[in-house]
Amino acid sequence: MIAEAPIPGLCSVTFRNQSAEAILDIAAGNGVKAIEWGADVHLPPGALGRAQEISDRSAQLGIQERSYGSYFRAGVSDAEAEIAPLIETAAALGASHLRVWAGDTSGATASDKLWGDAARDLIAVADAAAGHGIAVSVEYHRGTLTETASDTIKLLTMADHSNLYSLWQPVPDRAPADWLTELSLLEPWLSHLHVFHWQPDTPRDQRRPLREGEADWQTLFAHWEQSPRWDGAKIAFLEFVADDREENFVDDMKVLNSLCSART
């Protein structure tokens, strides 16, 4: 079977200390075709002029696919005040995709109210984004309601919206075999992947060269099927590099480009 080849992408938060212009130059010189722009530093919500500037420069460099990586937390953030600026900024960026987060568990057991509030907010943001042709995905991340595949499925089933999907990224302290199971379980809702290689450690995870995890990622890419409802690009966003160094990014991008060009 010939699988659709993913597009190699980059999360701008990989270089939080670099300007958007510098990131675009670095990206374009290393085969990046899509960028997820972080709302914490590079493109704050409501900065519509800046979003347009980034969009124009991206197009000039051949980076056509754009995602807006927000830090809106469904069930926690002020949905009434925050959703409209997020959608307006994503639209000005020319983004086809908006990332949001789901709740904040931070080691605590999520209450029924948090689950319900998060589902309500996800429906609201998915509705608003749909009017602009922007798909919405929840971040797959520790300390949230979407920390495991089963909980992600629970929340997306509660929200039950045709414009709502899930990202996926590896949880470092889980075995690669578990990653493949998670990917399979999430397939009905799956959009894009965040790609990195971390070594679990104490007190914090250690960023390692992507090349060290290439075999695991080859397996994941070979089994990566997006949601049957998804009709957009299939993007693998590189996120985080060892020591935040540009030379390590260059090497990681060589690996990612190789993964994206492989056929299964």
Oligomerization category of the chains in this entry: single chain
Question: Per DSSP, what share of the residues sits in E-state strands of 2 or more residues?
Answer: 15-25%
Principal-axis shape: globular
Q: How confident is the prediction overall: mean pLDDT? A: 94
> How far do the termini sit from each other?
6 Å
CATH hierarchy class name: Alpha Beta
SSE order, one letter for each helix or strand = EHEHEHEHEHEHEEEHEH
How many structurally independent domains? Answer: 1
- Give me the Rg, rounded: 17 Å
The largest beta-sheet arranges its strands as 1-2-3-4-5-6-7-10
How many strands appear in the DSSP assignment?
10
Low-confidence stretches: none
What structural class is derived from the secondary structure elements? alpha/beta
Determine the CATH superfamily. Divalent-metal-dependent TIM barrel enzymes
CATH fold title: TIM Barrel
What count of helical segments does DSSP give? Answer: 8
Keywords: Isomerase
GO molecular function, one term: isomerase activity
InterPro entries: IolE/XylAMocC-like (IPR050312), Xyl_isomerase-like_sf (IPR036237), Xyl_isomerase-like_TIM-brl (IPR013022)
Protein name: Sugar phosphate isomerase/epimerase
Can you give keywords for this protein?
isomerase activity; alpha/beta; Xyl_isomerase-like_sf; TIM Barrel; IolE/XylAMocC-like; Sugar phosphate isomerase/epimerase; single chain; 39% helix; 264 residues; Xyl_isomerase-like_TIM-brl
